[in-house]
Structures are given as structure tokens and as C-alpha cells.
Structure prediction request, 283 residues.
Amino acid sequence: MGPDLPINNSDIPNLSPDDALERDSLVFRSYIALGSYQLVISEIDSNAPTPLQAVKFLALYLSDPTQKDLTITNLREWLGDAALANNPILRLVAGIVFMHEQDYNEALKYTHAGGTMELHALNVQIFLKMHRSDYAEKQLKVMQQIDEDHTLTQLANAWLNLAVGGSKIQEANLIFQDFSEKYQMTGLLLNGKAVCCIHMGQFDEAETLLLEALNKASFRSVGRLNDAKDAETLANLVVCSLHLRKSASRYLSQLKLYNPEHVLVKRLSSAEESFDRAIQTRV
Prediction:
């Protein structure tokens, strides 16, 4: 399945204009998830409604690292327009972009008010990245009050359980297992199950799941492992390989090549620099 494979978005009869817009937004975001950034950029013109323009900002941001600053500047201009700033898709994209930038306070400026399940779920992610599982739990409770069985509520619950650890790991594993039985297996689910296995010391099983995730990514975007999920697969394979006393150099090299800004790469570079300084001091 290559990145240009058409997504099944067969016409649904009697959609209201708002529902049709939501459908189009989801379809274009699906193409972004497949790495088809240029398709999204070319098909959404300057006259498109705000939600689609927001999706285009996300595609622009992810497609070209050299244009990130310009994209963020343009995104801020839209967010500064009172008539546009409350659009939930625009706020969601702002949250995603600033989370990528690791500017979590800025991300929360646009997402904290919630309003949609996606915004609440993104808040959970942001709080977990800030190591504030207490705030993430509060967001999860809001989601549970709205719809306890919603897919995003269950995913957010699994993420929080992974962050808390201990006995919660088994609960997270059951959620990912339930999803894997209900839906087609994805890289996100495979990584979720693998991380549970790593926490439980089941490294051989984790490696099998992660290699399956990596194969799916390679099959999807032939030679272009460049989205966040693929990066996490490589990072998890590095950790898993080290626990299995196997060489992790190939996965680490791929991670450095495709995702040089990944936290694992940065931490390793920092450790290597500290080691080199210590050696020079001794010499």
C-alpha cells in the first residue's frame, strides 16, 4: 500500500455542509497520516474553508523542515484572527504543531478548552509529555463522562496506564488487545502492545510486534520512514534490542537519518558529547 493509494471516502447521502466538511477534513488528515503531504497541499486551495486550510497547514509543516518557521508564522496569523481562532480543527492542528515543537504551554493555549473528543485526547498526550499524569487523568475523566466507550477515550486510557506503569500496564495491554481484535492492526496498536510487553519484560514478543510495525511502515511509504509513528517504532526497537543484547545500530542509524530531532537521538548525542568532554579532560 503506497502513500498515493486512494482512501475509500464513498459519498454518503444527505450530508449537511458541516458534515461534508468534517468528512473531507478526515480524508485529508488520513492522507497526511499516509505521508501524502503534497496531495493534500495541492488539493486544498486558498479558497477552502478554515478547517481544510488548517489541515493544509499541518501538511505544510510536516512536509518540509525548512518551511516550518514560515508555516508556524502563518498559522499564528490565523489563530490571531478572532473570527477563526475558535475553529476546533484549527485549534487541534495548532496543538499538534506546537506539541511537535515541544512547546507544550503554547499547545495548551489552543487545546485546553477542549470542545471535541480529539482535543481532549490531545490534551492527554500533551500532559503526559509534560510528565503531568495527574492533569492527564483529569482530562481522561472528562472524556469518560462524555463517552466512556469512545475509541479515543479508550486510547487515552491506555496511554495514561502506560505512563503510570505498575499494575496499570496489564490494563493498557487489554485495551490494545481489544482494539487489535476489533480493527485492522496498525503501527499505533502494534507499538502500544509492544511497549506493554517491554514493561512486562516480554522482549521477544515486543520485538516481533515492532518488526511487524516497521514492515507495515516500509510497505506503506517505500523508503520514506518519516512520520512520528515510524520514529517511535525505531526508537522502541532500539530499546528492545538493547534488552535482548542485540545490536541496535541499524535502527539507531535509521532513526538518526529520518528523525534527527527525536528525543532518543538528542539524548544519545548529549551523552556522547559529555563522554567526549570527560575523555578530553582526563587527557
User: Anything to note?
Assistant: The domain at 186-283 is CATH 1.25.40 (Serine Threonine Protein Phosphatase 5, Tetratricopeptide repeat).
